[in-house]
Amino acid sequence: AQSVSQHNHHVILSEAASLELGCNYSYGGTVNLFWYVQYPGQHLQLLLKYFSGDPLVKGIKGFEAEFIKSKFSFNLRKPSVQWSDTAEYFCAVNDDAGNMLTFGGGTRLMVKP
Amino acid sequence: EPEVTQTPSHQVTQMGQEVILRCVPISNHLYFYWYRQILGQKVEFLVSFYNNEISEKSEIFDDQFSVERPDGSNFTLKIRSTKLEDSAMYFCASRGQDYTDTQYFGPGTRLTVL
Description:
The complex is a heterodimer. In chain A, 0% of the residues lie in helices and 52% in strands. Chain A has no helices and 12 strands. In chain A, a hairpin with a 6-residue loop joins β5 and β6. Chain A starts with a strand and ends with a strand. The mean pLDDT of chain A is 93. Helix content of chain B is 0%, strand content 50%. In chain B, the strands form 2 sheets. In chain B, strands 2, 4, 5, 6, 9, 10 and 11 form a 7-stranded mixed sheet that branches. Chain B has a 4-stranded antiparallel sheet with strand order 1-3-8-7, with no helix packed on it. The model of chain B has no long low-confidence stretch (mean pLDDT 94). Chain A binds chain B through residues 32, 36, 42-46, 49, 51, 90, 92, 96-106, and chain B through 4, 31, 33, 35, 41-45, 48, 55-56, 58, 91, 95, 98-108.
């Protein structure tokens, strides 16, 4: 069975600070990896995804993530956060069939203006 | 941009009652999903649906749950006899044909069982 861990439950940053949110997964086979974001009062939206190829994936709003297979990690980064990045961030994985998503517990990010 | 929609946004029901949560997936999508998130817990997969049948389900999705695509647009989740522990946010999602396609999520229905 797949599992996903997000070790940072709450992160508070000032605007312009750099962001890195950790995500580790456990699964023996090939995985597809995702970061979703949920802004206050809104639905889950895809930030970026990785299926194959370049392990450094660029997403929307200046976010990127790096897949490190040897570490079973898919950390999310942004060089300079904005107040509007305040949201909850979810890492998720699924297998080659592309079916069910397994989510991490989420990280609440608060960016102070 | 097309969106997944869900109704109602909030449903309050008494324990033991049946509820039906409704979703309208994106129109050309072929795979449909239900997830739930109990307050303070992870988003959990319930069931996936393709070609008018369940393709995968979790152990949460027991006999009290059922899904249906009654027409060409709606996708419903029925809970036959609600329990207190069914209180959660229920999310519908859909995706296209290819496994690399994104799963798009609806805004959720908050179910409160009293």
